[in-house]
Amino acid sequence: MSSKTGVCNTSAFKTPKKKIIRNSQPSSEAVVVGRRSNLGEALKAKGVDQKLPSKYDHGRTIPHFEVRLSKSNPFRLFYIGPQPNSVTLQDILSKDHISALLIINYIVDVKWIRDQLSSASQRTDDITIVASVRADLDGSMPHPQDPEGLKFFNVRSMPYKFGTHHAKMIIIKYDHGGVRVVVTTANMKVDDWNLYVNGLWVSPLLSRSEDGSGNPDSATNFRKDSVLFLRTYEMFSHDQPFRLITRWMEEISILNCVDVNVYFVASVPGKHQTDLEDWGHCKLRKILISHNKLCHTTASQSHVVAQCSAIGSLGGRDPGWLSSDFLRSTGASGSLCNFHLIYPTAQYVQNFIYSAGSGASTQADNQTCLSYSRAVHAEQSWLTKYLCKWVPADSIKMPAIPHLKTYASVDSEMRRANWFLLTSANMSQAAWGSNSLDQSTSFIKSFEAGVLFIPECCTDSESFSLVDSEDADQHFLQLPYKLLLRYLPKDEPFLTNSPPDFYKKSSLG
């Protein structure tokens, strides 16, 4: 935030100008489906409205989203949630006339989505939704009250236990034929866009030629990987028309994606062998190797900082998966010494709930989007040693619970980043995949989607700066959190299945 203007820039990345502006595994979705959470009611009682803000809320003018999007180049990355001038779904939908939408998500509130379309002066009913949970009406997909053009591709039943349809994307087709892709960490419901901190990446407008021939893919193979991801939904097509998906595969396959400068990193359920490097942590490893981000010199000097809203089983009492699979693929040389996991403390959540005024009778599982089982933590209490506190960055003006998931490789001085990933994938084997002992198979249980930022692709540099400066050649990466505040001996992670007196005022330290 600029100390001179007092304006919060919600673009996660920015290219500094020639002046100093710095001054400052159960399901991984713990939510209440089908009604407003108690936390939402508490915030509403304190005057925090959950409705998406209009362009002139509280007497302030929010710049048109297209202007903000242009200023966010070349990264086009935003943090959203309870902060001034946050990007809204209405903002994203307000550009040009929309002819069709593909929404891929875990939880969808269809009424809320249609309200945002209406507020953005969009009239299309050509909407395809790929989801597991519907939060409005009675949860039926479809429902008799749905408009004729609304189609559902139901992924409620996953092929593996503890698997979740967790990927979150929006693909927008406009009347003029162009397409825009949005990759986000937010569910399609009001709480995720107003109460919790989430992230989203918005693609450039992707065009196509009249016959679709000669359109290039990006240097990162974004088009190829996106189409491959959509094709995997065929595993659910035995009782519903796969044409709902192939239609969008055809749309994307002829787009000119040359201006896309991020990698698409996804996970899909399966025991992957021949396609092992297409998904999960193995895909991430393949990309990082191609950019020399896992070479011995780089890895030995780098720290992997993970930040998530849910933690699954990481191998029980033995941290084998974390060191042998995940850290091997992310560049910490398999060493837990170079690993840091940012996750809210119980104290932070308690204080946040009380600051919202929700009272002592509230239950933990109804309050936050966080999920970390008390039983799982008891089996892997060693993880506490590597935990760091969630403290929002100064640009996020309110205490807030994180629902976004980010991963980064930073140097030992915490001043530069080798890469940055925004994704739906929490810290779990189900999301990232678990390799066989001979490394020939990767077993993934969930759908996930994310975008990976590599400096050489985004800014033609070797790394991103984590320190804002007056040097126009230094590309500043604004993390959503503060680095690195380790847990104190008295700190404990927030755990679900908390005891009934968790929120009693006497339990606050």
Entry summary:
With 509 residues, this protein is an alpha/beta fold. The protein has helices at 38-45, 65-71, 89-93, 110-119, 190-194, 222-231, 243-253, 280-290, 296-300, 320-330, 346-355, 374-379, 429-432, 455-458; strands spanning 13-14, 77-80, 98-104, 107-108, 127-131, 133-134, 150-154, 169-174, 179-184, 196-202, 263-267, 270-272, 302-307, 339-342, 387-388, 401-402, 405-411, 416-423, 434-435, 442-444, 448-453, 464-465, 476-477. It is built from 14 helices and 23 strands.
Please provide a written account of the structure.
- By secondary structure, the protein is an alpha/beta fold.
- The protein has a single domain (13-17, 35-507), classed as Endonuclease Chain A (Endonuclease, Chain A, 2-Layer Sandwich).
- The protein has 14 helices and 23 strands.
- The chain has helices spanning 38-45, 65-71, 89-93, 110-119, 190-194, 222-231, 243-253, 280-290, 296-300, 320-330, 346-355, 374-379, 429-432, 455-458, and strands at 13-14, 77-80, 98-104, 107-108, 127-131, 133-134, 150-154, 169-174, 179-184, 196-202, 263-267, 270-272, 302-307, 339-342, 387-388, 401-402, 405-411, 416-423, 434-435, 442-444, 448-453, 464-465, 476-477.
- Strands 2, 3, 5, 7, 8, 9, 10 and 16 form an 8-stranded mixed beta sheet that branches.
- A hairpin with a 4-residue loop joins strand 17 and strand 18.
- Helix 8 runs parallel beside helix 10.
- It is globular and about 60 Å long.
- The model is unreliable at 1-28, 30-37, 46-61, 357-365 and 505-509 (pLDDT under 50).
- It is found in: Nucleus.
- The active site is at residues 166, 403.
- This is Tyrosyl-DNA phosphodiesterase.
- It holds the Pfam family Tyr-DNA_phospho.
- Keywords: DNA damage, DNA repair, Exonuclease, Hydrolase, Nuclease, Nucleus.
